[in-house]
Amino acid sequence: MIFGRAKSIADSLRKTRESAFGQIGALLGPSDIDEAFWEELETLLIQADVGVKTTVHLIEWLQERVDEEGLHRTEQVRELLKGRMVEILSASETDYLSGRRLLSVVLVAGVNGSGKTTSIGKLAHWHKEKGQKVILAAADTFRAAAIDQLKLWSQRAGVDIIAQAPGSDPGAVTYDAIQAAFGRREASVVIIDTAGRLQTQFNLMAELSKIQRVAAQNVHEAPHETLLTLDATSGSNALSQAKHFAKSAPLTGVILTKLDGAAKGGMALAVAHEHGLPIKWIGTGERMEDLQPFNAREYVEALFDNGAATTEAVR
Ligand SMILES: Nc1nc2c(ncn2[C@@H]2O[C@H](COP(=O)(O)OP(=O)(O)OP(=O)(O)O)[C@@H](O)[C@H]2O)c(=O)[nH]1
Ligand SMILES: [Mg+2]
Fold first, then answer.
1. Predicted model pTM
2. Per-residue pLDDT tens digits for 138-167
3. For a pocket test of ligand 1, which of 286, 291, 294 has the largest count of ligand atoms closer than 8 A to its C-beta?
4. Ligand nearest 260 Cα, by number?
């Protein structure tokens, strides 16, 4: 891990584990599978934001295995469930910015307040730690405060920023940032911040498409990542956001933010299973270091266990 002060995923997900998944863990403690078991498991998975579709899939899949293998203990279901969750979460797994190129362009989209600008600051820091030169593009030109906020992050992370006046064309800002990266600033990564809200949803999507087009016209195969920030505390609402954005802009993955708070954590499964979207990063706080590459196995372990050798005692 590159971050010296990063918390472990198990630490970050403590609250999450203690709420929804703690109860699932308790239900899957050592006992016999009884009549009420499947219904309780279904209810708890839905409460944990796994989503109805994915919950139904998990229950049916588990019941089949239990029947086939003649299992009768809940702790056996626990291992099966964890295994299936890891499979779902890794099915569409791809590396962040895999492949080599001169300039990588990363576009970050998402509804207002979902954590775009903060995640961009963290990503900039991550790249910088790897010795890469980063330019941020302040293409959320809708609000003056948005530009100021990104400037603050560029200072914190110690990276360059290209910004124009509020109200200017986001496509032009994108173009300028790319030219700056190719030109005198010689950066290898451009990260583009975008608006979360405009006058209309239509404008928002048109603006995103335009930014994508400008990137594609100026850098081969850009944007190389189009990441959607999803606030993990927003539950099923985030799922419909994902659907909406995926329709208007080809997404390459998700940054799941605010997992340090009251998020229930199951949303990652719904996003991966229903949308086939890989989770690439998780946001676990407001500091620059609070961003971690997503790892399916670690994530599932952190939802169920506190990382200690013994299984956590559930309330
Ligand atoms: N606890 C916690 N807070 C976060 C995280 N990511 C973002 N936030 C907070 O969420 C709030 C919104 O974050 P922004 O980065 O401004 O969100 P945005 O998507 O850029 O919002 P707009 O520019 O308004 O569209 C801020 O108060 C952030 O500090 C996270 O991983 N954990
Ligand atoms: Mg923002």
1. 0.93
2. 999 999 999 999 999 999 999 999 999 999
3. 286
4. 1
